[in-house]
Design goal:
- This protein is mainly α and about 100 residues long.
- It has a domain of about 45 residues.
- Helix content is about 60%, strand content about 0%.
- The protein is built from four helices and no strands.
Amino acid sequence: MKKMTAVLTVAVLIAVGIGIGVKLNYGNCHDNARCESMWAGMKPELLYNRYDTEKMTTDELKTLVWRYFISYWNNRRICSANGGVPPMIKRHQYYEFIKK
């Protein structure tokens, strides 16, 4: 059903003259895997048993998530894919390396 809905959506977009991305993958569960993995890790670390999100406004929730990613996810979270360093430190190491 999802694939049929996607096909119909694309047909409507083309009919009204709206272009679609070249790399549009129908039914590919891996195209969004990194994002889903990130959200799956964030929810227990940030939200569960800490905040009552049902009582929060949208702006409060946006601020909470933004601060989490800016302060923790990028700067302090240990990432095994980066050799055990946070993404921001790995990025700085990369830029220092290419300057040489």
